[in-house]
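## Example pair
The file below holds two records. Each record gives the amino-acid sequence first, followed by its structure token line.
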Amino acid sequence: MNRELFDKLLAEKAQAAGAEYVLNSRVNSLIAKGGFIKGVVAEHDGRTESVAAKVVVDAEGISSRLLREAGLPRLNGDKVVYAVEAEVDNVREVETEAVEVFVGKDCAPGFYAWIIPRRDGTAKVGLAARSGNPKELLQRLMFKHVVASCMLGKSRILRTAFHTITLGGPIPKAYSNGFLAVGDVASQVKPTTGGGVIFGLTCARIAAEITSAAVRHGDLCEKFLQQYQKRCNDKLGFDFRVMMRARRFLDSLSDEKIDEVLRACNRLGLGEALGDAEEIDFQGKLFLTMFTKPAAVAALAYFFLLYLAANP
């Protein structure tokens, strides 16, 4: 997916619905009165101004700055990985219809690396890690990794972006009087893969509906706004619980065990068994689907025994 065009499309749809963007701005703090969030203090083109709001929605990404001011729990700093993604050219010997994934402590300790090829010979190359310098790990992946270097050894890095990914599951409370937190800032991110678009948009829709209802009813207290958290939990809670357990399982495996798991999956035909799976984003539902496929059931039994061994 072309993320730049996707974000532009969302922006255009929001403007068509009445949203107004104020660029070159930064929110410095929240305005709190009588136990309610009433707006923000923002810096715009070098000027500081106060902006009143009936409800403030914090969707700023990986940060706990405004969460603290709103009296909400912070992101779990022990459950984050540090990512880098680059646009590169001159990619060779890569299958354009597949995404290459690399795991192991040497290339991406605590997470994984990826190559997403395009038909024009360019690709998105990235990784995330719990430890180490992401920039140095990217260089090692591209030019020293025994497999990836065959594809990327002649590539040039055209653009590079760095970001942090939260894998700790949703924060326990994402609302207070006159305030909601949505997306990465509320850790609404898949603990398995680090993806946040589908879950973030799902929660954003719920936030919009609850916020609209709160304004119509003139009830902006957290007792009313807690419906946001309840509906998010009802929609995604099972998926998050499954993925959190899967993340703990993955974190418990050594490189040798990961190799063993992948060989077992291949031997059991797990890839073919799940080839027609529709719910790849909602992985709790995918987990339930696995019980209808004999190869997947065998793989689950194997994973369960490994999990028990790693978590006595």
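Second record, same layout:
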Amino acid sequence: MTKCMIQVNISEQSLYLTTPDDTFHYSISTAKKGIGQAFGSECTPIGRHYVRAKMGRAADINTVFVARRSTGEIYSSELAERYPERDWILSRIMWLCGTEKGKNRLGSVDSMRRFIYIHGTPDSEPMGIPLSHGCIRMRNSDIIQLFDLTPPGTCVDIKL
């Protein structure tokens, strides 16, 4: 298995994937409410994480997920108009688990229990500015590429 590393730079709104053969750069969107670890904060947690689970391997681009399961829907502007309150999670999910006890693991700061993901979002949503509810949002084509290049267990370092 190849060794990969993901680095998320919140101040740049960038994600970098380093593989043994290459480095990839993606524009992202982190939390509108900034950085933070607490349950219910809707902030993006910082620190060392890893990809605990991946969902959506064979899903079509723009597949809609709710509670980590495909709804059978494909995102469209008509669907968005019908459900304006949804926080759209599309195409792929990479569920993060913190590794630093008391910072992003266990208790009221546990990233996995907070359901912190790297996931796709509607392509109409802007990248490069913080607008998420705590997760790391990416373009659908970008999350599919990232998903395909990274195995479960990949280290994810989220920093300011």
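Notes on the second record: Residues 83 and 150 are 32 Å apart (CA to CA). The chain has one domain: 5-159.
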